Structure formats: structure tokens, C-alpha cells
């Protein structure tokens, strides 16, 4: 098996390669003067089982283009099988038509990756599980929950934990984490706007008084969802609120918003390369999912079970 990295998250690609005790394949992924992406693979890959590690995070379109062009280069170099390893799958939130005459960009991106020549996809905490069905090639969706649960249990031994979903859409994800935390109770933040023009009201379903709340979500982008939910939980009497989020998109002033929020701590994974501001924040901690992704890659290469990683 061979591992090739795009430029989106080289530290993660190196950590995965370290876990697998393999070198990264010698390749250059660079730009021409006009910013076109150019890829050159400096090793023979004919007949190889190749994994391309590339998150389609910011700058999303550049990173997506790198993934497509690396895949095309591998296909034309006769790689036996190409797996697109996407720790973060950008465009995933555009998975349906919210309004008339809008695109389903997640499906378009899935088509692009398949057309470029990928034979498989390996992703982590897809925004919606159904996105697997947008690909007509085998797609594994890994979960960061076991890594998060181990960290939560190590830090909150006997605490009165309560798992909280910051919106109604995240209940399945929250329930899965609660199960791993010795069946901790569940609460839900229900955001409602009764009439257009009125401000949103946060209702908490569940009694969070005195509880150590663990909020879970797939993405933190602007930080609005999470910081507002954290404030609502503290107002309802929670002892503390810590958030565990798979993908730290953290656009714009998100790090500042988190720093000034009611959150005790934000824990994200390294699916997206952290910015300096994220790395420097004493309110944000990063858990590595390199071992999880590396182990899944090993199992794909060995043709053994990936789902048993989550038993
Ligand atoms: C939405 O469905 C997602 O699960 C996240 O809750 C959302 O993307 C977070 O975005 P923001 O941080 O901008 O509120």
C-alpha cells in the first residue's frame, strides 16, 4: 500500500503514515504561476493500492482540485486501487435542496471524485450518513466518537455527565456518544423562531441543572450554534459545558467567539489543519484521529472488517 498526501493537512498525513510505519510516497503537488494545480508522482505506483489523504477544507476548492488531479495522475499511472481518504469532506452540508433552484453540491463533488478515478472513499463523521449513497463506489464513514468517549471518560471519571445535542438534527449522533459513556442521559437544545422577524428562542429538553454537559456536533464553523447553545445550557443551571466536535472548520472570528463564550473547553479532531489561532487558543484542544484513520486504511488494504473498529 502507498500513501500520497495533498497539501491540505500534511501533519495528519504524516501521522497516519507514522502509524502505519510507511513513508509518504514521493510526489510533488504544486502550482503553476497562474495557480493551476500540477502533480508529479516520483515513484512507480503501477499495480499499487494507493491512499490519497486530502481534506477538502479551506481553501475548499483548491484542496478539492488537488484531490481530483492527484487521483487522475494515479489512474493514468496504472495504480490498482485508489482510495480517497477525506478526513473532512467539504460541501457535505449541501446535501439536499433547501430551496427551489439550488444545487446538491455534495452529490456533484461525489460525482467529480468518482469520475477522476477513485475506487473507494474513506471519510470521517460525514455530515449525514446518507452521503455515502451519493457515491456509487464503496464508502466507509468512520466515527470519531470512540476517540472522544475515551477522552471524556479519562477526564470526567465519576462526574454527572449529560450528553447534549446542540440541535434537533444531531440527536442520533448524541445518542451514540451517550451509549459509549455508560448510557449517560441526553438533553437537546431546541432552537425556535415562532414568527419571522422574532429572535430565536432556545428551549432545553432535559434537566441539565448541576450537570457536566458534553455537547457533540460534527462541525463547528462560525461557532454560532455551539456558543449560543452553551450559553442556554449555563442559563439553565448546567455546572459546565464542554464541546466535542469532529471537524474544526472555525471560519472567520470563530476562535474569538469560542474564547469569549460560556464553553469550558472546545475539543476538536485534527481532521482539518488547525490555524495558528486555533493552535494557540487555551480554550481549544485537539485530539488526533490519525490512529483511527490509519487503522481503517490498514484494514481496507488487508480486506478485513472496518466496522468492527467501532464494536
Ligand atoms: C449543522 O447542521 C452542523 O451540524 C453544525 O451545527 C453547523 O455547521 C455549525 O455551524 P456554525 O458553527 O456556523 O453555527
UniProtKB/TrEMBL annotation:
User: What sequence ranges are listed for the domain Ribose-phosphate pyrophosphokinase N-terminal?
Assistant: 1-117
Q: How is the cofactor bound?
A: Binds 2 Mg(2+) ions per subunit.
Example of a GO MF term: ribose phosphate diphosphokinase activity
Q: Which residues form the active site?
A: 191
Q: Give a yes or no for keyword Transport in this entry.
A: no
Quick one: which residues bind Mg(2+)? Answer: 127, 167
Q: What Enzyme Commission number(s) appear in the record? A: 2.7.6.1
Record keywords, A-Z: ATP-binding, Cytoplasm, Kinase, Magnesium, Metal-binding, Nucleotide biosynthesis, Nucleotide-binding, Transferase
Q: In which pathway does it act?
A: Metabolic intermediate biosynthesis; 5-phospho-alpha-D-ribose 1-diphosphate biosynthesis; 5-phospho-alpha-D-ribose 1-diphosphate from D-ribose 5-phosphate (route I): step 1/1
Asked if the keyword Aminoacyl-tRNA synthetase belongs to this entry, the reply reads: no
PANTHER family attached here? RIBOSE-PHOSPHATE DIPHOSPHOKINASE FAMILY MEMBER, RIBOSE-PHOSPHATE PYROPHOSPHOKINASE 1, CHLOROPLASTIC
Q: Can you name this protein?
A: Ribose-phosphate pyrophosphokinase
| Naturally occurring in which organism (per UniProt) | Novosphingobium ovatum
